[in-house]
Design a protein that fits this description.
Layout lengths: L1 E2 L4 H12 L5 E4 L12 E4 L5 H13 L4 E6 L16 H21 L4 E10 L12 H21 L5 E7 L13 H8 L8 H12 L10 E4 L9 H17 L1
Parallel strand pairs: 1-2, 1-4, 2-3, 4-5, 5-6, 6-7
Helix pairs in contact: 1-6, 2-3, 3-4
Length: 250
């Protein structure tokens, strides 16, 4: 099951698993599955509501469904909240309600529905590993997920259940189009020099769900094109050239 599986990275991952022959349930607030996704089941689940999450998991329990893989991909990316001193508390509440509390609610329900030797994967963000203007609430609300994954991994390890966190970089989705200004930053500051696509991320989910990763748990997998690797050589040269020009004319 993929919670937050009806759009963006979640939907792409649902399709990847289906194409691999898996039975897939895509859960979310809104059913955005297309006609071509008719064999992917939809389950209503609003992670901002404890009742909605409980009802969703209970419905699976009543049907006797055990999950081999649970991906908790729900999240929102608030608009630029500005700088400290001007961020509305309501924006803070919205980010943490979905990105932190919502993931916790799902993770809290997960053990009773997980098959032994299964895999739970949380979707974090590469933005927790570096400062990026306008991402204060998003980064802060997602930073708790790695610790949640580690605690869950320790508790569920005796059952062979692995819990990991995938942290994507800037990925092209409906809310992050290819012509977004952030694309220019990616070109300059990622080792691979570009934004990622959803297909760049789905393989990481597939790997952590598969038996090939059976000895990997309580860890974070960055899928960010090398953003944390630092600026590209071309960018470094441009900065140094600009600094040299400034000094010579100063």
């Amino acid at each position: 099951m993929i919670i937050g599986g009806t759009s963006g990275i979640g939907l792409a991952t649902a399709r990847r698993f289906y194409e691999a022959g898996c039975e897939v349930i895509a859960a979310g607030r809104t059913n955005r599955l297309q006609a071509s996704d008719q064999d992917i089941a939809f389950l209503p689940c609003d992670v901002t509501s404890e009742e909605s999450v409980a009802v969703a998991f209970s419905s699976l329990e009543r049907r006797g469904i055990l999950l081999d893989v649970l991906i908790i991909n729900s999240g929102i990316a608030p608009g630029d909240p500005g700088k400290l001193g001007s961020i509305p508390a309501a924006d803070f509440d919205a980010a943490f309600t979905t990105n932190t509390r919502g993931v916790f609610l799902c993770l809290n329900q997960a053990p009773k529905l997980m098959a032994d030797n299964g895999s739970i994967i949380l979707t974090g963000t590469g933005a927790t590993n570096l400062y990026f203007p306008g991402y204060a609430l998003y980064s802060a609300s997602k930073s708790a997920l790695l610790n949640l994954a580690r605690h869950a991994a320790a508790q569920l390890g005796p059952r062979g259940i692995r819990v990991n966190c995938i942290s994507p970089g800037t990925i092209i989705t409906p809310i992050q189009p290819a012509d977004d200004p952030e694309a220019l930053i990616c070109e300059a500051h990622t080792c691979l020099g570009r934004m990622g696509t959803t297909n760049d991320v789905t393989g990481a989910f597939h790997f952590l769900a598969a038996n090939e990763s059976r000895y990997i748990t309580a860890t974070e997998l960055l899928v960010d094109g090398g953003w944390v690797g630092g600026v590209t050589e071309e960018t470094a040269k441009a900065i140094m050239s600009n600094a040299s020009t400034t000094q010579n004319t100063g």
